[in-house]
Fold this protein.
Amino acid sequence: MDATELTRLRRKLLAMREMISDNVGLEVADDGSSDEGGGDLSGNPLDMADIDALYEDDIADEVEQDIIEDQEDELLAIDDALEKIEKGRFGACESCGCAISRSRLESVPQARFCLLCRRVEEE
Ligand SMILES: [Zn+2]
């Protein structure tokens, strides 16, 4: 995998990371812009409460929690992948050490295992 390819996948990982971070609401190093303390000129605070009420259901909470956990795992995998790119170890299966196929990295750049090892993991 050449440098151009790596740069492109790195950019993809960073974009994914940002997107997931936004969803999970984790602190990401950014310019610290926030909506806090802004005067609400529309004067209609009920809107947000109504939206929140939709989610005040145990099942919804549970599902949401699962999604957040999945996304946190995903973030860790993305961070790992970014670190591997830095260290020039990107694309090697963490289990058998073989090169993960390019098409797999293309769709899942944060993949830790090759398809074979992944299948073993899941069984
Ligand atoms: Zn493997």
Summary: The helical segments are 3-24, 46-54, 58-87, 102-107, 115-122.
